[in-house]
Design brief:
single chain; 358 residues; 8-stranded mixed beta sheet; 43% helix; binds pyridoxal-5'-phosphate
């Protein structure tokens, strides 16, 4: 029996615009090969850096284009090694590991269905060492799929200003929207003095290109660029030039629509299957992104269910891996087909319903 994976938070192969990218990579090399194949600036491929700067209305010197946005997270962790960082609970596990590897103390701050709990944030700010920054994923969060409400976005931007708190807004999923209106980003609301913004072309074009970026407050620009120089001299310019060619041709918007249609159908399949199969559970209802956060009935241990689930042919990531409660799990709908989603949820529900599990 094929295992159905709700664990893999990656795009299904049909989301990747392979043919178009092959053409863009060739065109990028033909047009600008001598630049793309040499060492260049640590900040990234100039035309792409300029495009991102224009998109966010900032000076290009504030944009650092990295080998995936996680690379930028490593630079930030190096820059703030040994300090204290506030994180959402639950949050994406990789930054937690990167921060821990650099001796950063992380303080979890509670969330609810509307995103980060700002009263809990205020309490965390009042206690302990002054944090170097707050790491937040306000839109279609990994792992919970939750989105910070607009009202809280305004309040968080104010809190950042009031407390001189640096906020890192990690936003790789914001453009992967299936329905509803996009709320303003924290970066837009605050103006970019206290909010650093990171995003990536991993979910909007292809993760294998490894093109992510940071829009930094001026105070961090030089430090992070120096870390990039000492790490790799130049990031991989071919991926960046390929992305730039894709943007230049006007392929980006149509691709976003195509991906939203593919993933929206998967999100719908998962929500409907959960409704049908797991009436006693709760789950998030994201308008985009890759993930649904499942809260199983109180007393269910999602980590303990993992082995029997694998035997039954379905996998997921237990919420505890992200700092969540034992009865929670992250279900990715991005990788599997709608049919597999229906069958996977059915397999999972059959296990959860067994009386001994609860
Ligand atoms: C919230 C979040 N940030 C960053 C990343 C990593 O993105 P990149 O491929 O640009 O390193 C991911 C990937 O899953 C993610 O979920």
């Amino acid at each position: 029996m094929e295992t159905i994976s709700f664990a893999r938070g990656i795009p299904a192969p049909e989301c990747l615009p392979v043919e178009e990218l092959a053409d863009c990579a060739r065109a990028a090399l033909e047009r600008d090969g001598a630049t793309v194949l040499s060492y260049g600036s640590a900040g990234g491929y100039r035309p792409l850096r300029d495009w991102i700067a224009a998109h966010h209305g900032v000076d290009p010197t504030r944009v650092l284009v990295t080998n995936g946005s996680l690379q930028g997270m490593v630079f930030l962790a190096e820059r703030f090694a040994g300090e204290r960082v506030l994180v959402e609970a639950p949050t994406y596990d990789r930054p937690l590991k990167i921060l821990a590897a650099h001796g950063v103390e992380t303080t979890p701050v509670a969330m609810d269905d509307e995103g980060l709990d700002l009263d809990a944030l205020t309490r965390a700010l009042e206690r302990g060492r002054r944090p170097a920054f707050l790491y937040t994923i306000p839109t279609f969060q990994n792992p919970s799929g939750r989105t910070l409400s607009e009202e809280r976005r305004h309040r968080l931007a104010e809190l950042a200003r009031e407390h001189g708190l640096l906020v890192l807004e990690d936003d790789p999923y914001g453009l992967v929207r299936f329905d509803g209106e996009a709320p303003p980003t924290l970066f837009e609301l605050e103006g970019g003095r206290h909010v650093a913004y990171s995003s990536s072309f991993s979910k909007t074009i292809a993760p294998g290109l490894r093109v992510g970026y940071f829009v930094l407050p001026q105070v961090l620009e030089q430090d992070l660029e120096a870390l990039a120089t000492s790490t790799y001299i130049t990031p991989v310019l071919l991926g960046q030039a390929t992305v730039f060619e894709f943007l230049r041709r006007g392929n980006f918007e149509p691709n976003l629509e195509r991906v939203a249609t593919l993933l929206g159908a998967r999100r719908d399949a998962m929500l409907q299957a959960l409704e049908r199969e797991l009436p006693d559970a709760r789950w998030s209802r994201p308008q985009g992104g890759y993930f649904i956060w499942l809260e199983l009935p109180e007393g269910t241990d999602a980590a303990a269910l993992l082995d029997p689930a694998a035997e039954a042919g379905v996998t997921y990531v237990p919420g505890t891996d992200f700092g969540g409660a034992p009865n929670t799990a992250r279900l990715a709908f991005s990788f599997v087909s709608p049919d597999e989603i229906r069958e996977g949820v059915r397999r999972l529900a059959a296990l959860v319903r067994e009386p001994l599990r609860v």
